[in-house]
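for ur thesis appendix - Peptidase M13 C-terminal domain-containing protein. copy paste whatever u need, i formatted it the way the template wanted (i think)
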Amino acid sequence: MQPPMYNWTYLRSMKFAELGNAIGRAMIRGFYGEGSSHDVNGTSSAFELHCQCFINQYSNYSVKHHFLNGTATLEEHLEDNGGLNIALQAYNKWQDENTEYLLPFLNLTQQQLFFVRYAQTWCSSESESFLQEQLREGSHSPARFRVLGTLSNSPEFSQHFHCPLDSPMNPSRKCTLW
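the 3d part is after this line
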């Protein structure tokens, strides 16, 4: 990985947000598929309920009355949400045993920098017509919805940015993978 996506001089919070998320997404990818969503009794209902929450959430995102297909993009959202959680847990564990300086002139905590860097990894310039086409195609979610959906499901994000309960970035009902 190379700048601007990765730089060895980045703070650990930023490295965990980027690399930790990429590794976490790959780990989650290995957990779904045939048989992986069933419990010891062969029941898949709990996993299906979690999946339905994500489908409903992402299906409500739209651009000019073109809605995202939450079913077609489900695996991507499971990876995004699970990857963020794995990266955040890894960073928190590292932070328990280490200290890191804050960036001067930037009034953000390390946890806030983690989430800012996570969002930056999805940064792109997309025209409205491109977004509408992407929604019609249905195979991938626009980057903005991947960020909004994943961060709004994170209690830690809401806590560190002081998002009011029932605001768009802190809904009372959050989707979880586990």
